[in-house]
Amino acid sequence: YADLAMYKAKEKGRNNYQFFTNAMNEEILTKSLLENDLRKALSNNELEVYYQPQLDVDTDKVIATEALLRWHHPEKGFVSPMEFIPIAEETGLIMPIGEWVLEEACKQTKKWRNQGHDLTVSVNLSNVQLMDNRIVEKIKDILLKIKLEPQYLTLEITESTAITSLKDTHCKLKQLQLFGVNIALDDFGTGYSSLSYLSSLPINIVKIDKSFINDITDKTKKEIVKSVSNIAHSIGLKVVAEGIEEEEQFTVIQSLGIEMIQGYYLSRPLPKEEMEKKFLNHLNK
Ligand code: C2E
Ligand code: MG
Ligand code: MG
Ligand code: MG
């Protein structure tokens, strides 16, 4: 697209052209530098899986965690997944990285379960990973190798994943479901899918995006979340509310019969040691 951008910039005159190419060069440079570093991140042990607890509203127990990837860059320090996941997806690096996250998260969960903690784990699955023809086999192999029963794994897909190359994606998700893995629709409400569309998707869980939770104390927002959750329940799906930060939001969610919450109100994502210290020792056994 560099050519197109230059053409457009040229049309606007020389100054714009200069400005535009400089800005673009910088962007491309930053990206390719980051891309180079990302290639080495895995072998340099710069990646770490953090865990954010999910609370069962009824029992007040942590029953699940979401695995969230962290990159400790040697010079830049912490780089956000919002920045590097898209690069990993563009370059295909998401394949080895995504597999590593899945394996790490499953191993850790197996370990916690062996210690007597009744936990499941959610792992984000990129639509690029779902384009891999061997993805279903790869996921099954990891679970079999680690000996984690598939019902203790949830794969989170986004709405955009759910609607791209529909038939193929649905088929793979269905195969995973038949194997026993749970599928969650992440960030629900930010994409294009309608409520009725939910019923045609091979999913078990809906995660209502934090943008709806932000002002849930507002009456209209509350009604929206209420109807989403009612419809989800009526077609047999479980509901998770994401991004709960305050007690008031938690109270509203509780009153709507939503079964699980995740958010800073409970905890930020934590390294495994801190997860153990704060949530697992003495608790949940
Ligand atoms: P996500 O899957 O929707 O994960 C939830 C994000 O919301 C996380 O951001 C989490 O830290 C943040 N969050 C949780 N509770 C709160 C809250 O109460 N308030 C606010 N403001 N934020 C909250 P994070 O860890 O920065 O990850 C961002 C996104 O990057 C994830 O969104 C996911 O789409 C992607 N991502 C992270 N790890 C992976 C991975 O291993 N694989 C793939 N494919 N994507 C990943
Ligand atoms: Mg997620
Ligand atoms: Mg989300
Ligand atoms: Mg997200």
TrEMBL record:
> Is NADP one of the keywords?
no
Instruction: Tell whether Transmembrane helix is among the UniProt keywords.
Output: yes
Q: Where in this chain does the record put each EAL domain?
A: 31-283
Keyword annotations of the record: Membrane, Transmembrane, Transmembrane helix
What name is this protein filed under? Diguanylate cyclase (GGDEF)-like protein
**Per the UniProt entry, what species is this protein from, by scientific name?**
Ureibacillus xyleni
